[in-house]
Design brief:
With 213 residues, this protein is an alpha/beta fold. It is 38% helix and 20% strand. The strands form three sheets. Strands 5-4-3-8-9 form a five-stranded mixed sheet. A two-stranded antiparallel ribbon has the order 1-2. Strands 6-7 form a two-stranded antiparallel ribbon. Helix 2 packs across helix 5. The protein is globular and about 50 Å long.
Length: 213
């Protein structure tokens, strides 16, 4: 009498539990990625959804000669504002170099844009230090700094955060939010550009945001 061959079967539910175990490993990673992406997107969406007068405002800071400068000095001109600090080792110098290249790509349109670098590190960034720093990238970039009391209202108006990271003496780093703010001739927000954009992308976005001639 022939015996019927039986196929070897896996234990009931084994495949299901293996799959479930795999998802248990993957889901926390997916959740973290989703939270980080939604957080960054949400912050920018929150800012851009606000009425433009709620971002930016009047300010009084110091230029490279230590002279007081207010937003009225740029009245009638578009300004491209970036907050950073001169001891930054990566993002700040890369951003300023990219902005300089983007302005060159704009051709004649760059005459209507005044790029401004505002320090978030008043302890080390004196007017002279900031002046020497921005001139490395372009003579067109205007460097502004000030005391803690002068900078805090400006940073609050632009929703900029900055926090000292632990370091040795004056070698500390500063974690800070990074965006390019394009303001119109009345110091109202026109748009915000991510700092990880290429020079071509920045130039294209500025062209899009500027009024057509």
């Amino acid at each position: 009498m022939k015996q019927k061959s039986r196929r070897k079967q896996s234990a009931p539910g084994k495949s299901f539990f293996s799959t479930l175990q795999g998802w248990k490993t993957v889901l926390p990673i997916v959740a973290v990625v989703v939270i980080l992406l939604s957080g960054a997107t949400g912050l920018r969406a929150m800012l851009t959804s606000q009425h433009r007068v709620q971002i930016g405002g009047p300010y009084t800071l110091l230029d490279g000669q230590g002279q007081a400068v207010t937003q009225e000095a740029f009245h009638g001109h578009y300004t491209l504002i970036y907050f950073g600090y001169t001891h930054c080792v990566d993002v700040c110098p890369l951003t300023l170099a990219t902005v300089s290249s983007a302005l060159d790509e704009l051709g004649r349109q760059k005459q209507s844009i005044m790029p401004i670098f505002i320090s978030v590190d008043p302890e080390r960034d004196t007017p002279e230090v900031v002046l020497n720093y921005v001139q490395r990238f372009s003579p067109r970039i205007i460097g502004l700094t000030g005391t803690e009391a002068q900078l805090q209202p400006v940073m609050k108006a632009f929703h900029v955060s900055a926090r000292h990271r632990a370091g040795n003496g004056e070698g500390y780093l500063v974690d800070h939010s990074s965006l390019l703010y394009l303001m119109d001739g009345q110091n109202h927000l026109v748009g915000m550009i991510p700092v990880d954009s290429s020079a071509h992308q920045i130039a294209a976005e500025i062209r899009r945001l500027l009024p057509s001639s």
